[in-house]
């Protein structure tokens, strides 16, 4: 990385970054009213790039990154020049924005950050870190002349910086309880926030099946609505070597024997959602060849990713209770039984007892508690105490503050027949992946 790259990254990191802020004493991190004014002003100075191409806008409590990656793969397989924006990143901020599946080059990112830095003095309010990165992604997509962008919401929807985009298709994976400091304490509150990406006249692809929550999305006035279990879904999902084989349907078209190189039954649901989103965008079915080629190429780093054997080493960024339950189901269904070591690190806003219980801590042979590399990291000693309270024997619990040391210790002690699962935070998973996986970019 050049000196200019380092300097611009330093300028970016000097901005307020909610991803790195803690929640003191359980209080909300939001100290001002939410607004889109900063991102709207910034993108206007950059030429309103989001108006230069159509978008598929994706939100949900779990699965939205995987859905965004799948949508991007499907669009690329049709021959469309495609940008994709996801968050958070595992190792490098470049990962958040891709064109044709490749992350933004350092020189392009540096140039666009410099452009925003030059525009910043002309803004009435200083933008946040996420607003800057979002604006850079939207500008880059226009610069490389994408024909469509798949854009993942960072948090919620209504007040998220990505909502400067008017998605031709709005996609909702599901609604569960997470980020209550920002989105509200109930699923209904959270649904209302996520419904903010549904603009009048757009198409809505709704993965959430709770009829009480559905109304939150319908009242936003979408043109067409495609519902999971009615208009699209999974007909069959079978385990296969290295992933799953799926039979999917969307708007009356059936796609059989689709290989998806991802683990976890929940990824089949994500695939059906992505397929419906692209069919809605294109207003018609895809060819079997396009679907087979696209899904076979999908990769989701840090989501039930196998990065080692003997012992088996798995990385999964499950960061809420629903995600932890999905991880545990996948471990039971798709991987051989063996003595399991959980390497866990949580952020402060998580209840460690709830997370450990959802991860099946009582079944684990060993639990290694560590701190994710984030200012929001929960003290691993609090995680250990939660494990004791769940009935895990003290001799089965180890505290190692540093995440990489914790992962290394777990692998060294697991034995060839063991299983090491690194989870609880994408920050921990990203650090572990950087240390375990070579040539990832």
Q: Layout of SSEs?
A:
Elements (H helix, E strand, L loop, with lengths): L2 H11 L23 H9 L9 E5 L4 H14 L4 E4 L11 E3 L2 E2 L2 H14 L9 H15 L4 E5 L16 E4 L7 H4 L3 H8 L8 E4 L4 H8 L5 E4 L4 E9 L2 E8 L2 E8 L5 H17 L5 H9 L8 E4 L3 E5 L4 H14 L5 E5 L7 H7 L7 E6 L8 H10 L7 E6 H12 L4 E5 L2 H11 L5
Helix pairs in contact: 1-4, 2-5, 3-9, 3-10, 4-5, 7-8, 11-12, 12-13
Report on this model:
- This protein folds into 2 domains: 294 residues, 3-Layer(aba) Sandwich (UDP-N-acetylmuramoyl-L-alanine:D-glutamate ligase); 132 residues, Mur ligase, C-terminal domain (Protein-Tyrosine Phosphatase, Chain A).
- With 441 residues, it is α/β, with parallel strands linked by helices.
- The chain is globular and about 60 Å long.
- About 2% of the residues have low confidence.
- α3 packs across α9.
- The protein has 15 helices and 17 strands.
- Strands 4-3-2-5-1-6-7-8 form an 8-stranded mixed β-sheet, with helices on both faces. The chain has a 6-stranded mixed β-sheet with strand order 12-13-17-14-15-16, sandwiched between helices. Strands 9-10-11 form a 3-stranded antiparallel β-sheet.
């Amino acid at each position: 990385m050049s000196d200019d790259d380092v300097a611009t990254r330093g300028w970016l990191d000097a901005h307020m970054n909610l991803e790195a802020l803690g929640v003191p004493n359980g209080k909300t991190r939001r100290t001002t009213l939410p607004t889109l004014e900063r991102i709207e002003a910034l993108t206007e100075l950059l030429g309103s790039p989001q108006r230069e191409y159509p978008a598929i806008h994706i939100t949900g409590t779990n699965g939205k990154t995987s859905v965004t990656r799948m949508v991007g793969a499907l669009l690329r397989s049709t021959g469309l020049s495609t940008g994709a924006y996801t968050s958070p990143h595992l190792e490098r901020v470049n990962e958040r924005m891709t064109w044709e599946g490749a992350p933004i080059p350092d020189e392009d990112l540096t140039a666009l950050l410099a452009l925003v830095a030059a525009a910043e003095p002309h803004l009435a309010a200083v933008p946040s870190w996420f607003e800057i990165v979002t604006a850079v992604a939207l500008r880059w997509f226009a610069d490389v002349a994408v024909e469509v962008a798949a854009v993942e919401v960072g948090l919620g929807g209504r007040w998220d910086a990505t909502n400067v985009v008017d998605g031709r298709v709005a996609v909702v994976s599901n609604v569960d309880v997470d980020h209550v400091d920002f989105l509200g304490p109930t699923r209904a509150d959270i649904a209302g926030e996520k419904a903010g990406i549904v603009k009048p006249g757009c198409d809505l692809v709704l993965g959430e099946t709770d009829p009480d929550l559905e109304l939150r999305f319908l009242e936003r006035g979408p043109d067409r609505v495609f519902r999971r279990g009615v208009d699209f879904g999974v007909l069959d999902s079978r385990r296969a070597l290295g992933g799953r084989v799926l039979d999917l349907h969307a708007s009356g078209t059936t796609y059989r024997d689709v290989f998806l190189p991802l683990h976890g039954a929940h990824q089949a649901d994500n695939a059906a959602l992505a397929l419906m989103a692209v069919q809605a965008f294109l207003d018609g079915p895809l060819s079997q060849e396009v679907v087979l080629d696209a899904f076979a190429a999908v990769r989701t780093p840090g989501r039930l990713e196998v990065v080692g054997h003997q012992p088996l080493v798995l990385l999964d960024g499950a960061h809420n209770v629903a995600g932890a339950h999905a991880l545990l189901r996948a471990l039971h269904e798709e991987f051989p039984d063996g003595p399991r070591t959980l390497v866990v690190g949580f952020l402060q806003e998580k209840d460690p007892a709830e997370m450990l219980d959802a991860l099946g801590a009582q079944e684990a042979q060993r639990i290694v508690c560590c701190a994710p590399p984030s200012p929001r990291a929960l003290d691993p000693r609090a995680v250990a105490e939660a494990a004791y309270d769940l009935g895990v024997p003290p001799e089965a619990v180890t505290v190692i503050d540093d995440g990489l040391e914790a992962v290394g210790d777990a692998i060294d002690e697991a034995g060839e027949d063991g299983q090491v699962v690194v989870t609880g935070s994408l920050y921990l998973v990203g650090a572990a992946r950087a240390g375990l996986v070579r040539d990832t970019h």
